[in-house]
Design goal:
The chain is an alpha+beta fold. The chain is built from three helices and three strands. The radius of gyration is 12 Å and the shape is globular.
């Protein structure tokens, strides 16, 4: 049986996992600090964060 691992979460849930405030992540995403494959705004207007990509990005920028 295959297991599905969900790595994309809404911003509020992802903030609890990452440890940042939602407003901080939104501001930095809009400023272009985080790439669009890490945090983006979907067509409905909700912000989404890919936790797996976040971890890869964090490791490469330390």
């Amino acid at each position: 049986m295959n297991k599905i691992i969900v790595t994309v979460y809404p911003l509020k849930i992802a903030c609890e996992l990452i440890g940042f405030k939602p407003s901080t992540l939104r501001k930095k995403a809009l400023a272009g600090v985080y790439p669009s494959n890490v945090i983006w705004k979907n067509s409905c207007g909700s912000w989404l964060v890919d936790i797996a990509e976040w971890e890869k990005w964090q490791k490469s920028h330390q």
